[in-house]
Amino acid sequence: ALLAVRESALDVILVLVGLGGAAFCYLFFASRLVPRALALWGVLTYVSMLILGASRILVPSLPAPIASVLFAQGSLFELVFGLWLVAKAREIASRASLPDAHGAS
């Protein structure tokens, strides 16, 4: 019984995360803070998470391969987006000119 509740709660969470993530990635898309292709991929990924959560609520016997493909797309996006953020942070840090702590008196 607890596993059924856990799975139902995950579906509700997927719907909420899908709404919030799609909106957040749209803001990235509109503001051009990240590459537009990456932001658009994020919008599509989070919309698919929303659809996955909603469809599992409406059709509890949704085939597992469909859910696996949508979860894999979300995982791949989050991995690529995280790596892009790390690469961008390293680029910004390498361009920053910090004063030498030993030379300052």
Task: Describe this entry's structure for a reader.
With 105 residues, the protein is an all-alpha fold. The chain is 81% helix and 0% strand. It contains three helices and no strands. Helix 1 runs antiparallel to helix 2 (36-58) and helix 2 (36-58) runs antiparallel to helix 3.
How does the SSE layout of this entry go?
Blueprint: H1 2-31, H2 36-58, H3 64-95
Helix pairs in contact: 1-2, 2-3
Structural class: mainly alpha
Helix amount: over 70%
Low-confidence stretches: none
N-to-C terminal Cα separation, in Å?
67 Å
* Rg from Cα: 19 Å
Main sheet summary: none
The chain-level mean pLDDT equals 88
List key phrases describing it:
elongated, mainly alpha, 3 helices
Concise structural overview:
The chain has 105 residues and is mostly helical. 81% of the residues lie in helices and 0% in strands.
